[in-house]
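Complex 347.
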Amino acid sequence: MTDATDILEQLSQIQAAALEELQRVKDEAGLQAWKAGHLGRNSPVMQVFTKLPQAPKEERPAIGQRANQVKLALESAFSTRNETLKEAALSQALQAERLDVTLPGREQAPGRLHLETRTLREVYHLFGEMGFQVYRSPDVETDDFNFGLLNIPEYHPARDMWDTFHTTTPGVVLRTHTSPGQIRAMREFAPDPIRVILPGMCYRYEQVTVRADIQFYQVEVLAVGRRITFGDLKGTLTQFARRMYGADVRLRLRPSYFPFTEPSAEMDVECFICGGKGCPVCKQSGWLEILGCGMMHPTVLQNGGYDPREFSGFAAGMGSGRIGMLRHRIKDIRYLWEDDMRFLEQF
Ligand code: PHE
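Predicted structure with phenylalanine bound:
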């Protein structure tokens, strides 16, 4: 036997031993150990390559070729075994973690928008079509913006209309209405004409009843420009109410008083519950108040930076919760912010 046949014989043994050992490998760790031992740098087959230069020149091709075959055979056996073990692990996992597909699924509760959000979006839409933009103003205001600049000086009896939450900082209050936004919008846009609505939460320190809560949404309407008249006010608000409540809704404007408008009015809609005959909800009057409004007081225009001899404007403020109540015949305004799902899911 020559050296070469000796080495070729050895290579066959190397292959046989390695393959036999591979069959006994049972897991990933064993597989990696096997790979290091039989295909790694110091493995027997790799050693044959390393020592190849020492073999007689004419024998090298045969040895090299055979060593290559062995190496390829081991590599392919390795990947086959790898696959087999992976499949075995998977089917074992499937067995162990069996899924019961006959169990009924868990129902996904689809979300929805809060009733108030939907009402507000409708209000934005209706006024948007009449050219009004949404303008945001802060919930926390100074006494000056909430009252003084709106022509309600300190000690003015009209302050009694707005029970107020005061913060611990003197002169800083939670806004009692969205009207302070009138001043902010005017100061931003003067002397340009304005058509905006100002939505937002308002806060009043008062007794909670079925028709009044300590916090509620208002939408302020503001139009400032040259030659704006009471006719524009009436037309705009009537158009809004008809689109909100239906084309044949009965409306009335009643004289009223607000320090920041002159003349002032309140708009009523016919009571939906009794059809105008009189019931407990409308306090037997047949009418429900939906908003306060009026022509802007010259002093307020001036405080906003407009010359009242040249400019005029109208403003209105409505509680959007009241709108939702009227449309859906909700009998208690407190439901709106109580977050009771049984109530909210009805809309
Ligand atoms: N701010 C008034 C209120 O909350 C409503 C109002 C707004 C009246 C604008 C007239 C003009 O009662």
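The longest helix spans residues 60-96.
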